Amino acid sequence: MTYHWKELLPVDEYIVRTNGILQDFDRKALTLLYQPLIGPIGFSLYMTLWSEVEVNRLWGMKNTHSHLIKMTALNLQQIFEERKKLEGIGLLKTYVKEDESNRTFIYELQPPLSPKEFFNHDVFIVFLYNRLGKASFQKVKNFFNDVKIEENTYKEVTRSFVDVFSFLKPSELDVSNDEMENALSQNNEQMIERVNSSGIFIPENVFDFDLFFAGISKSLIRKDIFTEEMKEIIAKLAFLYSINPIDMAKIVIWTLNEENQINVKLLREEARNYYQLHHGAKLPRLVFKTQPLQDLSLMGREPQSEEDRLIKNLDRLSPYEFLKSLSEGVEPTATDLQIIENIMINQKLNPGVVNVLLYYVMLKSDKKLNKNFIYTIAGHWARLQVKTVKEAMDLAKEEERKSKERSVENKKKETQAGRRTLKNSKDPEANRRLLMLGIDGNENNSNQAMSELTEDDITKSMQKMFEQLEGKGE
């Protein structure tokens, strides 16, 4: 679990700069293309930081994070999490300088991709489509499209520079070389310009290129065709479609053209076909991702107990696979998948934590995914920064214990109130009301078995679930 106070404090200073001029058209791209992916809070944080830079300027004024807390009405943990979201999607770069007395951050806002770049992006386009659905996706795409004129029916008559301007002779120059050099020197200043977005960053260790190249014969493909740009495309497609290096090597071989070059368009199609062949007709969604390596509960050790084995299964399964296993192989509904994806995107819960959440909610709701109930618990767990399966399981047991205690206390209050009101009554209707409250009018003992789950119930039920996951269930 990452705590914000390890990396960020209210007294820490920050200054906002933009990587080139941000323009009004960027707002439309951020609103319609990026907001569905990062959510309204991340979008709002970006816009707030942008507002600190004056029009046609690159740098803002220095502030503390206390100021940012007041401006956004977010707590520091929320700011920290949303900042990471902006960094991950390529909209923000963060730099820090520390000395003995204070810590200062530079938040460098990155321009969004142009609509053309966005709709040609291997990762963004798939996630946006699954986030919006076909109809809304087409509306957004149409917003950035315009009528195309058949230019081949026109003849260009534009004049060139030399057709319009002539050069001065040296004798006609009014400025000396020294004066010109002084005028052009910037003296620790930066020229304002428009910078193109670099898009998202995927670390090299996400895709094993050594294993990838081991699966390709040197006599079949020249290694020099794998430029940095080509390697980036391969890594993004492998990440998006969950393709291992060996299978990715086979796909690349299939897409070679007559000149022994990789056909990028065909590579994208084959990667998509590979995914759909193994996962059905639908394209990938965030819901298919599994627990991050750094948040595995049994990191580096083998399971020592039945609970450990259950945790290992919850870590390795995606929420989609887990929900399908709970339904004995029946495909989850689109509504259920949408609920899960909303939780993973908006609440930033890890897949393993979502698995525990799904099971706990279904256990409490007769195997139904109660939308309001699951969103309430998801919000609570997100505020508590639950990252691992073990933390989620312990929290589920603790919440059930508290729920039982509250229920027992309420039962006692109802029982005491009923006795005070009706204990001396001999009226049959009063006795009937006593019985409805679980009180025997002729006995003082009113203890009754509770319907709530005990911790032992949860443990046994989880054991049954473990057997289902292992293929031993009925």
Could you explain how this protein is built, in words?
With 474 residues, the protein is mainly α. The protein has helices at residues 24-51, 65-72, 76-88, 115-119, 124-143, 161-164, 177-184, 209-214, 228-241, 245-254, 264-279, 306-316, 319-326, 334-346, 351-364, 371-383, 389-422, 428-436, 455-469; strands spanning 13-18, 63-64, 92-98, 103-109. Helices cover 53% and strands 5% of the residues. A hairpin with a 4-residue loop joins strand 3 (92-98) and strand 4.
Give the overall shape, derived from the CA principal axes: globular
Low-confidence stretches: 443-451, 470-474
Summed up, the helix count is 19
* Alpha-carbon distance between the two ends: 37 Å
Count all strands and give the number.
4
**Structural class, please?**
mainly alpha
Question: What number is the mean pLDDT?
Answer: 77
Q: Helical amount among residues, as a percent range?
A: 40-55%
Described by strand count, sense and barrel closure, the largest sheet is: 4 strands, mixed
Widest β-sheet, arrangement of strands: 2-1-4-3
State which percent range the strand residues make up. Answer: under 5%
| Rg over C-alpha atoms, rounded to the nearest angstrom | 31 Å
In sequence order, what are the helices and strands, one letter per element? EHEHHEEHHHHHHHHHHHHHHHH
